[in-house]
Amino acid sequence: MIRRKFCLITISIFALLISSFGIAQAGWPERPVKFILGSQPGSSIDSIGRILAKLLSEKFGQPFVAMNITGGALGAFPMTMKNSKNDGYVIGMGADMNFSYTGLEKTADFNFDDFDYLCSIFKGDCSFICSGTREWTNIKDALEDVKAQSRPLIYLFQTSKDRLMMQEYAKQVGAQINCVPSRGPSSIISSLLGGHSDAGFSGGVHYPQAKAGKIKTLTMTTSNRSSNYPDVPTASELFDPSYVMDALRIIVAPKGFPEEARTECLKAISEVITTDEFKAFVNNMHFVIDYHEGEDLQRILDRQVIENKKMLGDAAK
């Protein structure tokens, strides 16, 4: 009897150890992860976000369920992230300016410090574009031309930041401008090709049309000239003051994201973005993988906040 009890106790302890070990080894994620994409279907965030979700799903054996959130002048995505549980099962990808710029606006129901910033993934050729049939050489040339015609430049904007930038540049030239909200990059390209507007903002998805000569890249809003358009000037070369819009696409999470989830997520992302499949996909879209995490990413975003505060202050004068 004593021996039988001893055997039962030993078996129970052994089973408990196996169970505990299994739980410890399971790790994050133990169930599907919601992956919110802060942009319209067909955008760079949507396209690259979905291939990233696919690779992460394959790596972990758990689905990373991609879903698009748009609207609210880029405020809907951050608000969705802010109102999500910080249990480690909601992450998102959007443009840096969703947070470092939109979060500074007086009308925003969130602020820059409401989120955990995990890493950046890629960046693209943010620029002002127009139809390839236009004779303009840059956006300043376009503004001067419509000024000479005594008419406004019809400009399709994607964000409140590129709208404010264009308004500032029009003011420097002394030109009138009519800023019209767009439904995303595809609608901007269609409008320009159809002759319904003069210029618009692109995060870089216009490369195929630019290569075909249907769309012209007028001016880069980025810190430096692009290797895809080496002859196209930056706004900093044309205007003073000028403002930068690099638009890193970043992975964010609700504030208080669990440390285990952060560690595993970053480790996996840093690995999958180096795979041939991911690199080929990004390269084919003519975007650039630009990975930063931790203090490095935080410094970049903090610098943006300082620059954007100055921009908003200048606009209020």
From TrEMBL:
Coiled-coil ranges per UniProt: none
Pfam families: TctC (PF03401)
The entry's keywords: Signal
Keyword Acyltransferase: no
Signal peptide per UniProt: 1-26
Xref: Gene3D superfamilies: Bordetella uptake gene, domain 1, Periplasmic binding protein-like II
InterPro entries assigned: BUG, Bug_dom1
Keyword Signal found: yes
Origin: domain of life: Bacteria
Family membership noted in the UniProt record: Belongs to the UPF0065 (bug) family.
Listed name of the protein: Tripartite tricarboxylate transporter substrate binding protein
The organism's taxonomic lineage, starting at the top: Bacteria, Pseudomonadati, Thermodesulfobacteriota, Desulfovibrionia, Desulfovibrionales
